[in-house]
């Protein structure tokens, strides 16, 4: 799948307008992320989700959409602050901005769908850790709950993050799961 340039531009505008309006996109972070972020895929393999230019920004917007919808459906006393929810949804995977590079092997792209590969020049850390590092190194601050929600977003093997996560963290995880399922379904319909 390929996103049209107009859609990439529209997604980028929506992302940065929302983040700026809510006050968590600093000039430093915007400059640091730059074109790498706008072009970044959300995954490396065609059979996963959003393994195409502009896929990451589209994925983050979809995560935010689903997390906000679920939050709105909760009883009032269980809802989380929507601004905080949007902040963690839109920042939790910015660490992918410089993480992938296009796969140069035509054989790998054609035969196994490996569209991107990892940038081996980078220090090894989880995407959530890298996302927090990028944000905090460029003037973004987090509440303790926001920090932990992002940190736990990609953990599946940690009992503390499974059983003692906040509602904010759970909404982020659920928004991510629903976004991936939706993106995979769209891909399936396009291919068939």
Short descriptors:
single chain; 192 residues; mainly alpha; two-stranded antiparallel ribbon; globular
Q: Output the structural class.
A: mainly alpha
Largest sheet: 2 strands, antiparallel
Tally of alpha and pi helices? 9
Overall geometry comes to globular
Give the structure's gist in a few sentences.
The protein is mainly alpha-helical. It is built from 9 helices and 2 strands. The chain has a two-stranded antiparallel ribbon with strand order 1-2.
What report would you give on this structure?
- The protein has 192 residues and is mainly alpha-helical.
- The chain has one domain.
- The protein contains 9 helices and 2 strands.
- It has helices spanning 5-21, 27-39, 55-73, 82-91, 106-112, 127-137, 144-152, 159-163, 167-191; strands at residues 100-102, 116-118.
- The protein has a two-stranded antiparallel ribbon.
- Helix 4 crosses helix 7.
- The protein is globular.
- 35% of the residues are buried.
- The model is unreliable at 188-192 (pLDDT under 50).
């Amino acid at each position: 799948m390929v996103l049209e340039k107009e859609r990439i531009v529209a997604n980028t505008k929506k992302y940065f307008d929302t983040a700026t309006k809510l006050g968590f996109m600093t000039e430093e972070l915007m400059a640091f992320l730059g074109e790498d972020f706008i072009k970044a895929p959300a995954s490396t393999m065609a059979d996963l989700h959003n393994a195409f230019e502009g896929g990451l920004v589209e994925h983050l917007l979809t995560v935010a959409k689903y997390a906000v919808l679920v939050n709105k459906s909760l009883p009032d006393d269980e809802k989380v602050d929507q601004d905080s929810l949007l902040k963690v949804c839109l920042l939790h995977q910015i660490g992918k901005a410089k993480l992938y590079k296009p796969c140069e092997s035509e054989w790998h792209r054609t035969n196994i769908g490996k569209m991107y590969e990892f940038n081996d020049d980078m220090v090894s850390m989880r995407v959530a850790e890298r996302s927090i590092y990028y944000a905090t190194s460029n003037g973004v601050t987090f509440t303790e709950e926001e920090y932990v929600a992002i940190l736990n977003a990609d953990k599946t093997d940690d009992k503390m993050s499974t059983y003692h996560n906040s509602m904010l963290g759970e909404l982020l995880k659920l928004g991510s799961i629903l976004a991936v399922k939706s993106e995979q379904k769209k891909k399936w319909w396009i291919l068939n």
